[in-house]
Amino acid sequence: MPSSSGLPPPQPRKIPSQKRSHATVAYIVGAARKILHEEGIAAITTRRVADRSGVGVGSLYQYFPNREAIIARLVEEEVRNESAAMQGFFNEIRGLPLPDFLAEANARLIQSERRMLALGGDFYRRYVEHFQVLRHVGDPSADDRGPDVETPVLDTRHSLEKRAADVKEADLNLAAYLLARGVPAMLRRMTAEQPELLDSPRLPQVMMRLLMAIVDGKDMGPGGNEATDPRR
């Protein structure tokens, strides 16, 4: 996972390999998470985490060279946990008709942003580009992925193909990209810049209109009127 500076995040000095080592790392990360929730990201220091976790500073440094390494591990775990929850959710709704599928996915994406934002506004803004949980969510029935195609986009195209009767947009690659990458990126940016909009009662409806517009294939002409297809 790249850091906000574009460089790889700090890595643990020592990779835990035994149960005791895993437990120590869990205590450290758990303490950092509590400090984050209660006081914000600025309060996370190696000494504060050591005191809160009950792990000696020397032992902490065996696993994490500095506070940034602790925070990087915390981000990694939060994204992994949210991705696992999202994967289970999408597995449950894959068989729904397209409008219902998009409505459920829309509500879950908004819920996910609220959950990640609850970790702290400063924390969210600093690591917003890492909170791309859909990158880790796949469709088990889409077994034709290639190494050069991002999984969410290909999986979304696969879902659209299975619902071809409901999809009117001719360019499935474009529709899949906008659904899998464009709309979630817009939602993340809104959350980072104007988080209060997550609580707007209009957000689910406006987002749903956007999602349906991507797949309904209707072209708009001047003045917002539906354009006439020149091929007809």
Structure, described:
- The chain is an all-alpha fold.
- Helices cover 59% and strands 0% of the residues.
- Helix 1 crosses helix 4 (67-93), helix 5 packs across helix 9 and helix 7 packs across helix 8 (172-193).
What percentage of the residues does DSSP assign to strands (E)?
under 5%
Q: Note poorly predicted spans.
A: 1-8, 144-149
Q: Specify the helix fraction band.
A: 55-70%
Determine the number of helices (DSSP H or I, runs of at least 4 residues): 9
Residue-averaged pLDDT: 83
Structural class determined from secondary elements: mainly alpha
Radius of gyration: 21 Å
- The arrangement of helices and strands along the chain is HHHHHHHHH
Shape: elongated
* CATH architecture descriptor text of the largest domain: Orthogonal Bundle
Largest sheet: none
Instruction: Say how many strands there are.
Output: 0
Distance between the termini: 49 Å
Number of domains: 2
